[in-house]
User: What shape does this take?
Amino acid sequence: MSDSAFWRFSLRFYAIPGVGPACIDLQDRCRVDVNVLLYLLFLADQGRAVSREDAARIDAGMRSWREGVVVPLRAARRSLRTPIGSFDRDAAETLRANVKRIELEAERIQQETLERMNPAPATGASTSSRAGAARTNLAAYGAHLGGLPDELLAPLLQAFDAGSAAPD
Assistant: This one.
C-alpha cells in the first residue's frame, strides 16, 4: 500500500456505501475528475478550504495525465465489459482485469502527484470546520466546472460529515 496519506484517505472514503456510485455519476455525468474531487475532500479533512481559482489550478495540473492516461485506460476497460466480435471471452476478461489494475495504478500516481504538487499545509485557507471546508471545496470545484448537481454531491457530503474518513 502507498504511504500517501491522501491515497489512504481515498481508499477509506471511497469504500463508504454510496460514495463510489456518487463519484462515478459525477465523473460520467459532469466530467468530474474523481481524484481531484477526493483531493478537495482530503484538504477539507485537513481543515483547508480552497477558492474557485485554487480548484481550477489543481484541476489544470491534472488535465494532461487525466486526458492522456486515465481516461483512455478507463475507456479500454469499459469497452472490454462486453464481448468483442469473435475474441475469446476469457482472454478479454483477463485483459480487462489487467487494464483495471493499471488504471488504478495510474490513479494512485495521479493522487501522489496531487499531494506533492499541492501540499495540504500550503493549499487553501485554514478553517476550523471540516464540514464547512468540504462544502466550500466542492462548491469551488463545481463553480470551476460550471456547476455540480446537489443530489450527486449529497452522498459525498453525508459520508464526509459522518466523519467516516477520519485518519485511522
The chain is about 70% helix and 0% strand.
